[in-house]
Amino acid sequence: MSKQYETVIGLEVHVELATKTKIFCACTTQFGGAPNTHTCPVCTGMPGSLPVLNKKVVEYAMAVGLATNCEITRMNKFDRKNYFYPDNPQNYQISQLYLPICRNGHVDIETPAGTKAIGIHEIHMEEDAGKLIHDEWEDVSLVDYNRSGVPLIEIVSEPDMRSADEVIAYLEKLRLIIQYLGASDCKLQEGSMRADVNLSVREVGATEFGTRTEMKNLNSFKAIARAIEGERARQIELIEEGKQVIQETRRWDDNKEYSYAMRSKEDAQDYRYFPDPDLVPVMISQEWIDEIKAKQPELRSEKLVRYKEQYKIPDYDAQIITESKHMADIFEATCELGAAPKKVSNWLMVETMRLLKENEMEADDIKFSPKNLAALIKLTEDGTVNSSVAKEVFEKIFAEDIDPDKYVEEHGLKTVNDEGALRETIEKVIADNPQSVEDYRNGKEKAIGFLVGQTMKAMKGKANPGKVNQILKELL
Hints:
asparaginyl-tRNA synthase (glutamine-hydrolyzing) activity, alpha+beta, GatB_Yqey_C_2, elongated
């Protein structure tokens, strides 16, 4: 009988905050830019330069803490984490060890077994390091300090997750909360959200944790899921062979689907943390906490409840629309302009999703305005354009946000509702297709579809299909 194993997973999630400037200086946090152009004496660690805390960083950290049910540490302070690494200009990183800003929170995730609370041990503020760029040609490493001093929060979970599915559900939940708060865009591919996975396995029923490893270099949800499966299998194989799992940091190679040991944690250096002498403690008053609470936007879970009651749209629609705050905003604004909620959700879920996929875009990249979507819905409801013309117009709206009324007028796309003209065309179609007429009269219902198609073709797609059907049946 083979042994059953359980995976125990905890995450450390780093999130780059959406501030305009860095955490301790006035340099821009913009992504990109020529190497070392977004820098100053503070973020390059020049002797004698002094850090000054960016207030917005504290407010974003508090907002994320409140949205994840954390206690806010009323007096928190910064510590120096000392280690030598070329991309770390001061030879220490300013972080929070002893008194992090948020503690003891949780987020709820949905699993096949029901709702599960994932504990959040703490959230602390810190600065990002620079970036090493390896030049293969010259065989040297170059340092770019643009990212050095970009504000981060690190969200440390409890070891409460048991599978890759739970990990992804937790990350999705965190990402949506943070995006809704506007605290970060959480783009994994740009590194504004990064997750390190701490994983161990133990026999089912065991109370002690196994030896854990930490995996880095995970920049997509798919890579995280693959890394978890790969590391779980690797550890079980070692245990089955009677070998020891070594506590170490490993680097996941997504192309090879394998992880490599980077450094052992057994002899890991002690970071010699001590309170940063250049920064005063951060004192947070109850008034400040209340002010942040009052500014918290409606989060996704609250939107889902409201959409059901206010807009009466199905759960499935609400789930998809609220997966992006930007799309949810477009939905609400279009409904406010008088469009029927279900019609709006259909355009977003079918045509919008299709075009996003075809253009390899994210929902956050949608450029069209609610005003033009509402105008198009009105044109279809009034019967001014038929559904196939509406789709063609929508593609223009999606690409260039054109005014649908003007576009339909200028391109002569209005539906022909003139019964005389329609009858004339239909009579000609009947005369030209005796075989289909014969088939229809012999009980082949499908034959009428062909005649409708021929009529639409003759009318250049600008007829009302319902009306065409009605006249055809009457004439036949």
